Every structure is written in C-alpha cells, then in structure tokens.
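Q: What structure does this chain adopt?
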Amino acid sequence: MQHVQQVQNAQKMNLTIDYSGTPYEHTVVPELVRAFCQEHPQINVFLENYAHQELKDHLTHGNCDVIFTMPDIIAGMDNLAYHSLLIGYYCLIVPSEVKLGPPPISLEELNKNRLIFLDHRWCPPTQDQLQKETCLNNHSLDLAYVNNIATARAMVKARLGWGIWANFVSDPNDLDLKKLPLSTKIVPDYGVAILKQGSPQAARQFVSWLEKTGLPG
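A:
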C-alpha cells in the first residue's frame, strides 16, 4: 500500500535499498540514508534486509533498486553493475581484552583458540577461501560453524571463540571487540550493485551520491 500511495504522487520517486544486515550496515546504512534523504527530499527510501542470494534475486527481478554487496558475491551476473566503495582487509575478531602479537596476525597463530567460521553456503566466496586457507595452515583447529554474521558476532561477544571477517563487517562503534589484520593476500571489496539496464533514476542518484560521499572505513 505504501508503494502504491507513493506511485500515485508524481512529485516523488521511490528507492528500495537492500542489504544483508551486517553489524556495520546496521550502524552505517541508517546514517547514510538519513543524509541522502536530507539532500534528496523528493526520493522516498525503503529498506529491506535479506541474505545474499535473496539480495541478488530481488535486484535481478526488480523487487529492489540497489543492494549493498561484494563483487565476488555477484560474480558472473552480467546484468548487474558493481560500484566499489571500500577496499578493506580480512581480520581476526577478538574480545578487547585478548592479547596477541602485533598485526598482521599470521594464519598459523589461529590455532590458539576456538574459531568461528561462516558456513560456506552463507559467506562471501573470498571469506570461504580464507577459511580454507586457514585450515590448510593449521593441522588442528577447534572450529564452530554458524549460518549468519550476527550469530558469529554474538558468539565472539559471549567469549565462545574468535571470528574471521572483513573489517567493513564490524560495527565501527563496538568497543567490546577489536579487529586485528590478518596476514593474507585475499583482499575484500565492498560496494553497491544496480541493474545495468533499466535502473531507476533514484538508484543512479544514490550510487553517484555514495561515490562522492564515501563510506566510513
């Protein structure tokens, strides 16, 4: 009903933004959208939260206009245009009181505590690659697998193990956990994707605004 009401108003444009709901996105996306709306009051923004596969399906079928994603997640989808906003790094996520050697942390040091991995069906391909690399560099690991980043973060905060994910996944305001860069050549990339053909004007305006504004690191 909200969409129908807004379509009837010729002075307004709709923009639906989908994201996977990482701690970083829960903190940063509302701030970005608020600032964007202040500069573009003629655009009505809707937010939706889905898993990676659903994000791709929604965008491809026109059920949303923009998705926050990573290039490896949408690899091979020639109908999508990816716009990089942040080049990050993979890191070890530990409670703030944990003392480890100076970063970067070698993968061989990750056998000192239980590790929390994302199931390969749920994590970005580059993270899955890093998890496999970690296993190859350690003969014995105590591993726990979870199916979403929120659970992984909750387990680290509960002191049930250490996590591995990209720096742009963590809540930048979370002082209870710290990010220690890992010694790996795998480099994660974060940005947005829209349709190459038929993308609405509001989506193109949002992407252009993001590229000028940038994202918090």
